[in-house]
Amino acid sequence: MGFDLAALLGLFGLTSAFALVALVLAGWMCWRIAEKAGLPGWTGAGAILLTLTGIGSFISLILLWVFAFMRWPRDGLAVATAAPAAPGASPGGAPTPPAALPPPPRALPDRRGWTLSGGGVTLAFDESRAAYTLTGEASGGSDELVVSDLSVGRPHARLLTAAGRIGLQDLGSPGGTYIDGARLLPEHGPRDITAVRTIKLGNVELALSRT
Amino acid sequence: MMTVIGWLIGLGVFALMAILVVHVLFALLLIVPSWRIFERAGFSGLLSLFHLVPVIGPFIVMAILAFSDWPSGEGRPRPAQP
């Protein structure tokens, strides 16, 4: 039986039990990754199973590149969620009213305020307002948090507060918005940044802490 | 005798360098798309450099993406929290 199993595995190019375990593990992980991107899980596992074929390794590599640069269904969900606020960055136009932060998974009991500091700027805010506008130049709005720098848009991003959590939404400024080094795009919609350490607006890096 | 040993050492170093260059080139084919995937998931793209780890590098990358919560959101709902 052991010999038969080895022969069967050999037909599929699996030369050891280690290879079989690695294949199953990779298939399972790719199933989860595909689901997180909004795709059916079998697409991820199927891409791994393709390595069982003669030219499968190349096909899997091509599929990896396609997956990296294709439009993920998850992004569509984010746009749909943030649709009311998406046009807020229209150049020259007044920002649209901010969308409410989507219901958080769990309200936090800690209701202290927040501080953004860095680049010679210290901004304090709390939940007295549901939304703040991060901008490079004051335009008279009472909800504005001003970061005076040429790389910061006017407006640049929106901060949302709800249930002890804060969210950040990029408004499409050319300088870019980053959460712990990862780029936040307008199509991502509002993202929970309660647990992050730094955000970056253009060239200005701001550390997030509780007041 | 010394000449033969010198040749063998030279050949070994050459083979090692060739293997290293091929490994890095192949890893680059994986690092570039993985960098993009990590950034879209909300992580730092630098995590894709785990592909440089021989043999288990791709598994480390897949495990990070598969078993951690994506900071920029996921396509499927997370399990309800108590």
Mean pLDDT of chain B: 86
* Low-confidence regions of chain B: none
The largest beta-sheet of chain A arranges its strands as 2-1-11-10-7-8
Q: What is the correct CATH architecture of the largest domain in chain A?
A: Sandwich
Structural class of chain A: alpha+beta
Query: What is the residue-averaged pLDDT of chain A?
Result: 78
Q: What percent of the residues of chain B sit in helical stretches (DSSP H or I)?
A: 55-70%
Structural class of chain B: mainly alpha
Features:
heterodimer; A: 211 residues; alpha+beta; 6-stranded antiparallel beta sheet; 11 strands; 29% helix; B: 82 residues; rod-shaped
Task: Describe the structure concisely for a colleague.
The complex is a heterodimer of chains A (211) and B (82). Chain A has 211 residues and is α+β, with helices and mostly antiparallel strands.
Model description:
The complex is a heterodimer of chains A (211) and B (82). The longest helix of chain A has 20 residues, at 17-36. In chain A, β7 (177-179) and β8 form a beta hairpin. Chain A is 29% helix and 23% strand. In chain A, α2 runs antiparallel to α3. Mean pLDDT of chain A is 78; it is low at 78-97. Chain A has helices at residues 2-11, 17-36, 41-49, 56-69, 73-81; strands spanning 114-118, 121-125, 131-135, 144-146, 157-162, 165-170, 177-179, 182-184, 191-192, 198-201, 204-210. In chain A, 34% of the residues are buried. In chain A, the strands form 2 sheets. Chain A has a 6-stranded antiparallel sheet with strand order 2-1-11-10-7-8, with no helix packed on it. Chain A has 211 residues and is of the alpha+beta class. Chain A has 2 domains: 2-70, no CATH class; 96-210, Tumour Suppressor Smad4, CATH 2.60.200. With 82 residues, chain B is mainly alpha-helical. Chain B has a domain at 21-67. Helices cover 62% and strands 0% of the residues of chain B. Chain B has 2 helices and no strands. Chain B has helices at residues 2-41, 57-67. The N and C termini of chain B lie far apart (74 Å). Chains A and B meet through α2, α4, α5 and β8 of A and α1 and α2 of B.
